Amino acid sequence: MSLAPWLDACPIVAILRGVQPEEVEAIASALIHEGLNIIEVPLNSPRPLESIRRLHSAFAERALVGAGTVTTEDEVAAIVRAGAKLMVTPHCDPDLVRAARARGLIACPGFMTPAEAFALLAAGADALKLFPAEAVSPAVVKALLAVLPRGTAILPVGGMSAETIPAWKAAGAAGFGVGSSLYAPGDSPAAVGAKARALRSALGLG
């Protein structure tokens, strides 16, 4: 399993922090309708494993379902049982990357420094989450790509919106984790769909 084809189709990871299991399928359906097929449920959301189970059951063939804010190996095992195919962490932990890869998950761990990036790639990371991206600038992505192995996928997360994404894209980012500017607790599926269209437009995807 690879992250690349999903990013090629649409390089947005929809982060549904705070989503409720009872609404997650309707929200995901709106996202998928707009072409956003990578959906992450952070584990600090209400009953996140239930949301992941529902997404896997409803959209396993149409979406890459992931879990975010993963911080322990027990959580890695739990998200696999729930049906997640993607693990996202907020921090650099090569052991978590190895645990995820051993279970067949795509691993996109968080990093901030070159040392962390190289350590995570050595552990088998499929892509790297630059977090919190609002603490740096797009120039950081350009500089990192000059020294990291060719083809390394960097996904900035934090502060991503229709207004900020173009500069990160120009710097070479392979994808973008988008949270509050795409989904906030209480948003209707229609509202999320409208935000998704704005993001696609910012990426020149129509």
From TrEMBL:
A Gene Ontology molecular function term of the record: 2-dehydro-3-deoxy-6-phosphogalactonate aldolase activity
Keywords: Carbohydrate metabolism, Lyase
Pfam families: Aldolase
Assigned EC number: 4.1.2.21
Keyword tRNA-binding applies: no
CDD domains found in the cross-reference section: KDPG_aldolase
Keyword Lyase on entry: yes
InterPro entries: Aldlse_KDPG_KHG, Aldolase_TIM
Pathway(s) per entry: Carbohydrate acid metabolism
Subunit structure: Homotrimer.
Family classification: Belongs to the KHG/KDPG aldolase family.
Protein name: 2-dehydro-3-deoxy-6-phosphogalactonate aldolase
Organism: Neoroseomonas marina
